Amino acid sequence: LWVSLKNGEIYTYNQTTDHFILKVKLTDYFSNTATLNAIYFDKLNRLWFCLSNGLFLYDIETDKVLEIPGFSDMNITQIIQSGDHTFYVGAGQHIFFFTDNQHHTQFSLPEKNQTETGVIESLHIVNNYLYIGTFSNSAFVLNMNTGNIHSLKNDIPSVPIRSIVSTNDHEEVWLGTDGNGIYVLNAHTHQLE
């Protein structure tokens, strides 16, 4: 269990001692004050930092931080992995995607989806669709095969979408809001249930 704080401190939980232990302090790596928006473990157990000044990859073994090209000085709010080599990133009001190579050592420059969504709060992938929750502009669904994106504004009000999860069978997508309950969508039709 890893826990991140906005001030850039990241803790791990030690079951033996029943305490949280400071694992990473971002001020040890960055001279300027960056806000830590999110952390994410990918399929290779690599730890990503979504910061107010870019996207970074932390190597747990070597204790080194690598800046991902193309995201310098961007407010990165979320990242999620699709397949083995593709990543989607929420930055400002846009979704970007990039890939890493076969050996997971080099990264392509990010490509931007031109649709403005609103400030991105949450990302979740179900059945080749990327669900995008925003701070004040409802939610969106991006077809990862075609790149087409459509808004869910007609079904979900413009409230912060803080969390998106799916059921184990991938039949339903649940969108948790800040103060307006939970909305449940059919994962195939993207309609409210």
Features:
193 residues; mainly beta; 4-stranded antiparallel beta sheet
Structure report:
Strands 4-5-6-7 form a four-stranded antiparallel β-sheet, with no helix packed on it. The protein has a four-stranded antiparallel β-sheet with strand order 8-9-10-11, with no helix packed on it. It has a four-stranded antiparallel β-sheet with strand order 12-13-14-15, with no helix packed on it. It starts with a strand and ends in a 7-residue tail after the last strand. It has no helices and 18 strands. With 193 residues, the protein is mainly beta.
Main sheet overview:
4 strands, antiparallel
How are the strands of the largest sheet arranged? 4-5-6-7
Number of helices: 0
Order of helices and strands: EEEEEEEEEEEEEEEEEE
User: Which stretches are low in confidence, meaning pLDDT under 50 for 5 or more residues running?
Assistant: none
Task: Please outline the helices and strands.
Layout: E1 2-4, E2 9-14, E3 19-25, E4 36-41, E5 47-51, E6 54-59, E7 64-67, E8 76-82, E9 86-91, E10 94-99, E11 111-112, E12 120-126, E13 129-134, E14 139-143, E15 149-151, E16 161-166, E17 172-177, E18 182-186
Antiparallel strand pairs: 1-2, 2-3, 4-5, 5-6, 6-7, 8-9, 9-10, 10-11, 12-13, 13-14, 14-15, 16-17, 17-18
